[in-house]
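Protein: DNA polymerase IV
Species: Neoaquamicrobium sediminum
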Amino acid sequence: MFASMPAAVNDPEHGFCRDCLAPQKVARRRCEACGSPRVVHHGELYSLSLAHIDCDAFYAAVEKRDRPELRDKPVIIGGGKRGVVSTACYIARIRGVRSAMPMFKALEACPDAIVIKPDMEKYVTVGRQVRAMMQALTPLVEPISIDEAFLDLAGTQKLHGRPPALVLASFARQVEAEIGITVSVGLSYCKFLAKVASDFAKPRGFSVIGEAEAVSFLAGQPVTLIWGVGKAFAATLAQDGIRTIGQLQTMEQDELMRRYGSMGMRLYRLSRGMDDRQVHADHDAKSVSAETTFDTDLATFEDLVPILRALSEKVSARLKKSGIAGRTVVLKLKSADFRIRTRNRQLPDATRLADRIFSTGLDLLRREADGTRYRLIGIGVSDLSDDGRADPPDLVDVGSRKRAMAEGAIDALRAKFGGKAVETGYTFGRGSRGRPPRSDES
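Structure follows.
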């Protein structure tokens, strides 16, 4: 349809309808063909090709898809009362629920919410389905997380017979029809503004920020719109009288760098809509980790050890499945007053073994088990690489080879008979996370 009308495609007045994809001859609020209000017009609509796609309230959307009776109810995905909110549907968000909010606060804001424990295996499967559909549009897909990615569709118009904007609108319709969830699309000339645009008009959003309007658009926005400007840094800027991006636009690069170091360069460039980062399809994970939040605070070394062991086994299983290994072991602890401690140790060689991850984490934990009450513990590995040279024989620790062989035998039994077929003495009888099972935990 668009291939047969090239002149109209390049005319800013000739937008299209997001519901029926019909081209629009004039700028109106409703589609000329179907009457839908979801019509897109923009002066650079057909010259932009860099997009950010974000699934709307992803975990909650998948659960509502699988349980239609939840469609009009507030849904929170997260742990028990001591956990945090992973995500919440838009009905719950209207009531004040936010991601990363402690669960008890979320339930205070929305007491009638239905809380569902995360099913990561299901979410990963759906995320991969969406990713495969993205990769059918362009090879330049850079995943940011399980439910969002950057896409560069430059040069794909001949392949699709349609401009990138229309291809993206068609993609959004396809995801909704075939997978049963919705996405929001941000279209721009750079990553920064594509990500900003995708946050507009959620859910089912489709927003465009062009190069001509970038500086004027940014001028009225708060400084927190810039990547890396969180609450703490925003407070620092506020002390200096800087609250809007427009104020940053009046400042020279040297002054910003003198005040804020390397962050000053970012403030200078992004405040002016300058972002030359490219979309890279080979965006690999930087770490593999697992963590858990307790129902009640734990303080003793004896209570924390079995949980650390169970999490180490989980990380090891993920590494082995992905064919990768890590050289740096990272221990994470969150105290009862929400202070986070991270400790790490670099190994002589990369590992994928639960035994080495656990023993290294155990040494780090001994120093932190000082009577502090903890609400969360996590373990992970970074400095990832291919596992081809991982875990070479240790001439000093002669028992390491036997432990590695025993771990291989355990892995084989679990693969054949299930994850609970074999347990170590650390976790035996302590539930799925190395601690006594709750009534809702098997």
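Remarks: Residues 214-271 form a domain with the DNA polymerase; domain 1 fold (CATH 1.10.150.20).
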